[in-house]
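Reviewers asked in the last cycle whether our approach scales beyond single polypeptides. To address this, we selected a multi-component target totalling 622 residues and predicted its structure end to end. The input consisted of the following lines:
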Amino acid sequence: MAVTLDDYRTVSPPGSVDILRRMAEKLRSRRVLRINANRSGTGVAEMLERHTPLLQELGIDARWEVMRGGEGFQAACQVLYNMLQGEEDRFSEEMLQQFVATNRENAQQLSFDADVVVIHDHQPVPLIDIRPQEGKWVWRCHLDIARPQRKAWAMLRQFLVKYDAAVFSLPKFAQRLPIPQFLIYPSIDPLSDKNRELSELEIGATLDRLGIPRDKPILLQASRFHRFKDPVGVIEAYRIAKKQNDCRLVLAGTPTSDEEGRRLFAELEEAAANDRDVHLLRLPETADIEINALQRAATIVIQKSTREGFGLMVAEAMWKGKPVIGGFAGGITAQLIYEVTGYTVNSVEGCAYRIRTLLNNPELAAKMGKDAREFARWHFLITRNLGDYLALLTTLLR
Amino acid sequence: MSGKNGEAKHPFQFMACWELREMLGRRAADVQELLDGLEEVPLDSIYFHTHSYFLRHPYISGPYPNDFANWAAIQLRDRVLGERLAVIDPFEVGDLEALRNELVTILDDHLSHVGSVPRIAYGELFFFMQSRILAVPAGIKARTLTEFREGLERVDSSAVYFHVLAAITRKGKRRNDFVSWIEDGLGVKELAGRVAAINPYATSLEGVRKNLVELCESAERAAH
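The resulting structure, written as structure tokens, was:
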């Protein structure tokens, strides 16, 4: 059955659904078009899929369109993606031509008849060149573009200056642009499989299936197996903490399929080889219930990233009432209030120390988890995200 | 003035609000840059980092009650500066220009006492921001003190922010909306005086709500 706004009443801050409805009254029948590059398989697609029916329920004429492109376009977008996120790569003249030409082709197919057009991420950015006279255009950037490669940014910027506004997920991602730049945090959906309530029975059965005993406190890092998530550092921190506090470590996620990903996983397997309390779980990207159960069974959730986008897995753990130890990176610092909803740490030793702090003080861990859930309720749920969008639309259409 | 049975002629309409945050594109990595920014950013930004901090943290907040103090203590790791910035009370300082002056003076004084300019080593930059506040009818009206208290108990906490903090600082009113209505609408001057004396910066929005409800209950008991 489709989820409706009223389903969020029990999980979102009191009165917030009513506020959304009242905010939307002035936007009734306004046409909002959102365009991205993927119908599924990305966080942005997932968000758009969930947002669109809720905006429609609020009386907004919301549409979601996906642009199309061949292999050449996809390759160009991937290079651009890498460069915007700071990696060395080369965006050739040929790629630029392919990038712009594919956008022109898409512009022929799409109808831009809307009061507000929201372009998500870099792929459809050049569509701005075909904008009709009416309507406001917004660029919604979900990428970490804190330190982009200059050439890639300069190329994209020539299109971005033609927009009416830009939206970023963190202040540090914003760039020098002559248009208003708004801040909207991404969000989690508390009713999705990844975050919905699970019964003790479901949690127990899932952990049994994954082969994780619940005989001692569980430390969990649920994240892609990537160097930037520092899983090796997590194992080192666990080893230091374990000298005084018996516990179990679970590293769960999807390994990357490239050479570096294989090398990292082999390194982790070697590090975990002689310790039956360290569990490496390779999970598919669709393992939402498994991640949910692991997070709920964990005593402490760790996200010791050295580099991160927003890092919504932190909000997911907070929503489950868990104290979180996070690396000092990306959006983790925006989610963790130090010593209140969790700890940010800068080193393996710092991580180990905070693991001990929390394992030795279960009352503190419980209080921190409770506060973390409340903080997530107010700041990182889909209802807050929808409210920000309504506020953005209202501001643009004034 | 109140009419029959303590009913106000014009009902109080609770307004909630929503904050849309906007980046100014200005950042600071050390105390000098923070000071330079503070001198130059629009007053809306001073407001955002001090007053509307309470709107963003209705229940749970960082160690200090404004963004400047939290940045100094946590990101810059200068606890002394954090403490000095934290103790500023916008309720006492008055208008935003005076608040800017107070902040600048503290930073300037701090710089004159330290050997080198404190700079972030591992922490995050400070990003100057401002916001646009959208008023939203909360759908609750009150004509009597009891209805007002009941409305106050269940309205979204952003309404407390809108009518108490934003009314004075952002809209430049002499009295906050609750004080005005209790005094002019209900004609209960003593209660209005007590409500006006609440320092909204001494606690959270929920704390302010609790204080207001207690004052209303006390006035209701006295009236019977």
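The two ends of chain B are 19 Å apart (CA to CA). We regard this as preliminary and will revisit it once experimental data from Aim 1 are available.
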